[in-house]
Design a protein that fits this description.
Elements lengths: L2 H12 L3 H8 L3 H8 L7 H13 L2 E12 L4 E10 L1 H9 L1
Antiparallel strand pairs: 1-2
């Protein structure tokens, strides 16, 4: 899964808006929108803040660097695997 898809999936899983995620990460709404649409990717620090935020919410993201080459983007793309906390899954299902 590409980073943009990871951000969107996490946000939707948590049931929060782009604005709410932006506030939690201390970035602008436009930044989150660009990440989700694949128009930009965060720097290392911003990614670290995002991964830390996810960890606090019980979401584990494993980075699998450079699994494929995307000619359209002109380089190697990192992929991410998402693992949601089982308790959160159960709560979400029972809601």
């Amino acid at each position: 899964m590409d980073f943009y898809a990871t951000v969107k999936q996490v946000r939707q899983y948590l049931g929060i808006s782009q604005e709410e995620l932006a506030h939690a990460l201390n970035v602008s709404y436009v930044t989150i929108n660009r990440w989700e649409n694949g128009k930009s990717e965060p720097n290392r620090l911003a990614k670290s803040v995002f991964f830390s935020f996810c960890s606090k919410k019980g979401i584990v993201i494993k980075e699998e660097p450079n699994l494929h080459y995307d000619h359209k983007k002109g380089g190697k793309i990192n992929n991410y695997q998402l693992s949601m906390d089982e308790k959160r899954k159960a709560r979400k299902t029972n809601s």
